[in-house]
Structures are given as C-alpha cells and as structure tokens.
Amino acid sequence: MGFELAVVSNTPLTPVNDLETVAVQFLTQIGYLPGGENPRESLPYRLFMDCFLRRPEKQWSVEELIATLETSRPTVYRHLNKLKSLDLLEETTVRTEGEAQIRKTYRLRYGNLSKAWNFVEANVKVAMENYRKTIDHLHDLAQKEVNHG
Hints:
Layout: H1 19-29, H2 43-53, E1 60-61, H3 62-69, H4 73-85, E2 89-95, E3 102-108, H5 113-148
Antiparallel strand pairs: 1-3, 2-3
C-alpha cells in the first residue's frame, strides 16, 4: 500500500483541550477518518484511540484487535494497513509463550505518537521533493516543445 495523506490548509488545534475533539478533527483532516455522523464510534477511530494512542506501549496482535473491536480480520487489516502506510505503526513478530507459533503485533512506532509522526513528515518531504522533480521535468519538456515547435 502506498503512502497517502490528505494535506489541507488548517490551523493548529492547540487551543482545544479535549483529547477526543482534537483527535477527531486531526484524523479527519489527514484523511484517516471518514466523514460521518459520529466518527467517535467508528472502527478506525476506536482502533487508533483506544488501542494505539491510549495504550502506546502495548503490542497488539490481530486476534486481540479483532476481539477488542468486535470486528472481522479483513476489517482490522484494512485499517492497520492504512496506519502502516502512514508509517505510524511498527510491526513486530513475537513467539507466543509455550507455543512454537509466531504472531505479528502492532503498536505506535516507538510507542510514541510524536516520534511516529516524524516518519510521516519524512515521507511527505520525499513526496514533495519528487513532485518538484516532476514539475521541473514537465516544465523543461514544455519549454523544449515551445522552442522547437
């Protein structure tokens, strides 16, 4: 899955002191939460807030997320993949106690949203640099056509 982030003109939400209000507005702005009547009840919101933001140290298995969110495996993976594409999550493998089974687990990168966001910013920077190269190339091609045509 490719990196995808909505970038919209906005003002910092720093004057707002309610965690859930800031989270809903921010997650909607970046395109993670779909618009809707009550985004706080949506599965992507509950996954991000209840599992990752409020428990940043916990490494969640898919089975735990399915049970906590009371949803299906494909739904959990769809939303995990969206957060992974932003580079906010880290994926690790752990061996379960007493079993030879290896499971994938997920948590906020470094167990810290602020540190995880550094990866998002790095991805945005690379994407913008690539857009710049394409724009410069497009401009050069157009100039050549104008000069030779």
